[in-house]
Structures are given as structure tokens and as C-alpha cells.
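Example for tutorial group B:
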């Protein structure tokens, strides 16, 4: 098992090194830092922005907005998803709204949010509206996957509803919910930062990306992108750890 883990880590390192090498070669061929900075120039820009006064406030603010939108979508997605999974009527009534949420272009949502909400609230709303249908769909599918014979048997033997929920429905929902959380978080960071680019809060990763673009500091744009990727990686790692604990449970 340890050898397998080591081999996997080495493959990951080799993969990253390979793509960084391609990036470096492409940057050398282009020969313009404005169009495509080298990895070294990007690292230099990263080392400049990390000690800057607005770096940590921006990272914390973006993280807070992303998590606020996600947890809001998680709570409502669970509640409404369970309702739709248990009731065919509720599912039919809610389905058109879910189709609209999934089909509406992200840019349309951002532009409407700019009209409806304050600057700091725009990324939260956009993150929520993108993640909510994902959580809802996965929870609904999890409820529908429950073996109805187990539920009927529980009713026949008059098993308490709390036991039915925790020992029948919850184990069925969890794998779907974890998959939904992973997808929602992955997409969520992208749309939250995209919303920040347009809404321009005082402290935000997206705001800093836009400022770097205005001053043609492409290395800075790449550096802030790396920060966003690290944020996404940390959240994904946390989800994987949670998934392992749930599987063990």
C-alpha cells in the first residue's frame, strides 16, 4: 500500500513537471511576458503579491464568500432535495426551477446579480445559484436509490422514523451528496472569482486579477490564478478526507 501511494505521488509530480515544462517552452517560443510569462516570472510575481497588504484580506474574503454561497446551497439543496426525493409531486413542481438554474448562462446570472445585490453579495449569490442545483440533483437521486423494500419492512416492524432516516436514507444519500459537494465546490470557486472580477469588491482574488490585467501584468494574473488553484485544491483535499471518514463510518 505504501509503495502504491509513493508511486502515485511520483506520477503526480512527474505530471506537474511535464506540464510546467510545456508551459516554459511555450513561453520561450512566444517571447513576450505580456502574452505568456514564464513559470519563473509567475513565481516572482507570486512572491511579490504574497507580502502585499491586501493579499490575505483578499484570500480570506474570497474564501468567505465561496463558503457562504456553498453552505447556503448545501442546506437548501439538502432540504429541498429530500422533499423532492420523497414526494413525486414536489419533484415535478421544483423541476422547472432546476432546469432554469442549470440552463441560465453564468454571465447572465452575474449581470443580474450586479443589478440586484451589493458588490460583496454578488459572488455569494452566484456561487449559491450555481451549486444549489448540483446538490439538489444528487440528494434527490440518493433518496430515489433507497431500496423501497427496506423502507416498507421498517414500517411493518414499526421501526422509529429516526432510525429509518439515519440507518436507511442517510447511508444512501451520503455517496451522492459527497459527489455533489465535490462538483459544486469545484465549479463554485470558478464562478465566485468570475463574479468578483465583474463586481469588484474591495478585497477579492477576482478584483486583484482584474487590476493585474489592467496594468498588463500577466505574471500577476497567473500568480493570482495559482492562488485560486491552491484554494480549490485545499477544499478538494478536505472533501476527500471527509469522504474517507464517511466510508469508514
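The residue assignment follows.
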Amino acid at each position: 500500500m505504501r509503495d502504491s501511494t509513493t508511486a502515485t505521488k511520483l506520477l503526480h509530480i512527474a505530471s506537474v513537471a511535464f506540464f510546467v515544462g510545456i508551459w516554459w517552452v511555450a513561453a520561450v517560443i512566444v517571447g513576450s511576458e505580456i502574452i505568456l510569462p514564464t513559470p519563473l516570472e509567475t513565481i516572482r510575481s507570486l512572491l511579490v503579491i504574497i507580502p502585499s497588504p491586501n493579499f490575505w484580506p483578499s484570500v480570506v474574503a474570497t474564501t468567505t464568500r465561496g463558503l457562504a454561497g456553498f453552505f447556503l446551497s448545501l442546506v437548501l439543496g439538502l432540504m429541498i432535495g429530500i422533499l423532492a426525493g420523497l414526494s413525486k409531486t414536489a419533484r415535478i413542481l421544483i423541476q422547472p426551477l432546476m432546469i432554469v438554474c442549470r440552463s441560465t448562462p453564468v454571465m447572465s446570472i452575474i449581470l443580474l446579480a450586479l443589478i440586484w445585490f451589493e458588490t460583496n453579495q454578488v459572488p455569494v449569490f452566484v456561487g449559491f445559484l450555481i451549486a444549489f442545483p448540483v446538490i439538489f440533483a444528487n440528494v434527490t437521486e440518493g433518496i430515489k436509490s433507497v431500496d423501497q423494500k427496506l423502507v416498507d419492512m421498517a414500517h411493518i416492524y414499526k421501526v422509529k422514523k429516526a432510525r429509518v432516516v439515519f440507518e436507511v436514507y442517510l447511508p444512501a444519500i451520503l455517496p451522492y451528496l459527497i459527489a455533489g459537494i465535490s462538483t459544486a465546490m469545484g465549479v463554485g470557486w470558478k464562478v465566485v472569482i468570475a463574479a468578483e472580477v465583474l463586481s469588484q469588491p474591495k478585497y477579492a482574488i477576482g478584483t486583484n486579477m482584474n487590476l493585474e490585467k489592467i496594468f498588463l501584468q500577466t505574471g500577476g494574473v497567473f500568480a493570482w490564478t495559482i492562488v485560486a488553484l491552491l484554494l480549490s485544491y485545499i477544499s478538494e483535499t478536505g472533501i476527500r478526507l471527509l469522504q474517507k471518514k464517511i466510508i469508514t463510518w
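The mean pLDDT is 84. Compare this with the pattern of hydrophobic and polar residues in the output above.
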